[in-house]
Amino acid sequence: MKMNAKNMMAIAGAAILMTGFAACKKDSNNNTTTPTPTPAAYPKTVTIEYKLTSESGVDSASSIGYTNETGGTSNAMNVKLPFSKKLTRTVKRYDNLAYAFNAYGAGTLRMTILVDGTAVKDQKHSGTNVISGSMAYIFE
């Protein structure tokens, strides 16, 4: 197939238009680029709250362990429910929080980790003789 100058110009024009459309994606604010979301600035100081509540059956936990203000571990023994521990900590990106409990009896317990008042982890754990649970949260 032999191409004349007119066909070649039409193909070249279409290629330029297609390249232009692909490169310039407009958003609703008529910006020609879509900004990349920036990660949260670290280090930052946050309020952390650990909660353990009974949804049925059990009214105490034999042990509760959690990441404390320094990044170490604190433990509480023979705790009456509901349990709540608030603390303030400066965290870096990829720091983590760990939270665990053990209780004896039949029932259901709910664990929650809140960061700056927002629940970031929430789990239910049930058992007929022993109830154990653990969870972790990583700052990203």
Q: What report would you give on this structure?
A:
With 140 residues, the chain is mostly beta strands. It has a domain at 44-138: Immunoglobulin-like. It is 14% helix and 54% strand. It has one helix and eight strands; from the N terminus they run αββββββββ. It has a four-stranded antiparallel β-sheet, with no helix packed on it. A hairpin with a 5-residue loop joins β2 and β3 (73-80). The termini are far apart.
Write a concise keyword list for the protein shown above.
140 residues; mainly beta; elongated; 4-stranded antiparallel β-sheet; 1 helix; Immunoglobulin-like
Can you describe this structure in just a few lines?
It is built from 1 helix and 8 strands, in the order αββββββββ. The protein is mainly beta.
